Amino acid sequence: MEVLSVASEAYPLIKTGGLADVVGALPAALAPHGVSMRVLLPGYPKVMAGLADGRQVLWLDDFFGGTARLVAGRAGGLDVIAIDAPHLYDRPGNPYVGADGKDWPDNWQRFAALSFAAYELSRGAIEGYKPDILHCHDWQSGLAPAYVAFNAPTLVKTVMTVHNIAFQGVFGWDVFNGLRLDYQAANTGAIEYFGNIGYLKAGLQVADAVTTVSPTYAHEMRTAAYGMGLEGLLQSRADTVSGILNGIDANEWNPGTDAALAQVYTASNIFERAANKRALERRFGLEPGDGPVFSVVSRLTWQKGLDMLPGQIDSLAAHGGRLIVLGSGDAEIENGFAGAALRHPGKVGVVIGYDEKLSHLIQGGADAILIPSRFEPCGLTQLYGLRYGCIPVVSRVGGLADTVIDANEAAVEAGVATGVVFSPATEEALGEAIRRTIALYGRQKVWHKMQRRGMKSDVSWELSAEKYADLYASLLGHKLDDDSDD
After folding, report:
1. Which helix (H) or strand (E) holds 217?
2. Which tops the pLDDT comparison, 411 or 479?
3. Which strands sit side by side in the sheet containing 322-329, from one edge to the other?
4. Each residue of 139-178: pLDDT tens digit?
5. CB half-sphere exposure, 194, CA atoms < 13 A
6. E strand or H helix at 236, and its extent?
7. For a tag on the chain, would you pick the N or C end, based on fewer CB atoms within 10 A?
8. Alpha carbons 461 and 245: distance in angstroms, whole number
9. Nearest to 246 by CA among 355, 402, 361
10. Could you say which DSSP state residue 286 is in?
């Protein structure tokens, strides 16, 4: 099967969050299941630099306000087709926002262009290549299924994957004439969203299949509490909606070989993790201590629940815990952590920003990682934590609920606990979870068993890739052989 993955980012070429990790990992994970996957990306500067040896496969004289070309090649271990359209994508910094922190005003056009390019490829615009399936990720590619459904016909099937339904790509009707989308899409209401145009809504309305990144989130986003206004549509299409858990690249995230660590280790020699903890203490200016080192590696936002943590840091420190934070986001939350670091020198360390190597060291050296999200479609951070023996402390939502087993006494006695899970996602419940984690850390035999159990969990893409391959096959009307290795 030929699948074109359509996305606004893919690791290692361009990354702002977990979406890039998923898009970057899927092609290799799917290859053993007979799926050949290329990735269609906007030609941001970093993408084009990675494709320096790529070849032009299509020239476009009139492409959403300028000339463009499609460039194909290998980059970052991926088979990539990039849209080299400087008037749309040749901009510094973040792919979505300018230096002023505001969305680029032409994002409606930049990502309509991404979707339209996918549609053109599905029609055989490149000689010798015609995908069987367009796998579209998030709102930036949400119009692709609409082009397939309403413009000149093509036989391609479409899959729409929701990584976070809070981000929907909503624009005013004044942009419609620039979309190159047949008027049927407007007349049938397929793209209308509360008086505006909704890119994600369009994809959810007409895609052949809708997936999201965990079974629990597939249920949650059909409820008013989590559906962000799209729950009615998803309820009406319930028979097309499924949840397939994300995995992680087990080679990229491997504590036994990770060059970012001060000391590599495995589940069988987990005590060697201590060297990484010492390295973290030095990096964040922490004083040595007997209590656990808690960590945060995250966007510092309301969704991630991190506005609740600063108010619990005094208690965390009083009970013998220490805290390190790597992330950026809302200024008020950043200031809350900075204030805690001033109040607790040697117990709280904060780095505002993101550092990929440092994130690996944190997973390899911190005792626990805090993920108190109010909603979390899947989450990758807790999977990294499990893989590295960094105990996840998570709220019981979305993929967090699907991947972490709470260390209640029954689960501890049964030998299945892998983390600490709390509910509801409130500051009080978070504080109690932190205190419970500190108590568990005091039971070192139990703690080390939890670490080893997490490290042995299958957080790879193997099972989830098989589910995606089966989904593709079902859309094409045939069944894959279980042992397919084509």
Report:
1. helix 215-220
2. 411
3. 348-352, 322-329, 293-300, 368-371, 391-395, 420-422
4. 999 999 999 999 999 999 999 999 999 999 999 999 999 9
5. 10
6. helix 231-236
7. C
8. 9
9. 402
10. P
Query: What is the DSSP secondary structure assignment for residue 97, as one 8-state letter?
Result: B
> If you count DSSP H runs as helices and E runs as strands, how many of each does the chain have, helices first?
19, 18
Q: What is the mean pLDDT of residues 428-434?
A: 98
- Render 100-168 in DSSP notation, one character per residue: TSSBPTTHHHHHHHHHHHHHHHHTT-BTTB--SEEEEESGGGTHHHHHHHHSS----EEEEEES-TT--
* Strand-strand pairing, 78-84 and 68-75: antiparallel
Instruction: Decide: 341 and 348 in contact? Cβ < 8 Å.
Output: yes
Non-local (6+) Cβ contacts of 440 within 8 A are 391, 407, 420, 446, 447, 450
Q: Rounded distance, CA 283 to CA 271, Å?
A: 20
484: confidence class by pLDDT, cuts 50, 70, 90 = very low
* Residues in contact with 382: Cβ distance below 8 Å, sequence separation at least 6, in sequence order: 369, 371, 392, 394, 399, 400, 403, 404, 419
Greatest CA separation found in the chain?
67
Alpha-carbon distances, residue 196 vs 168, 175, 225 (angstroms): 11, 10, 22
Contact 4, 131 (CB under 8 A): yes
pLDDT for the residue numbered 276: 98
Q: Label residues 429-465 b or e (16+ Cβ within 10 Å = b).
A: bbbebbebbbebbeeeebbebbbebbbeeebbbeebb
pTM (global) more than 0.85: yes
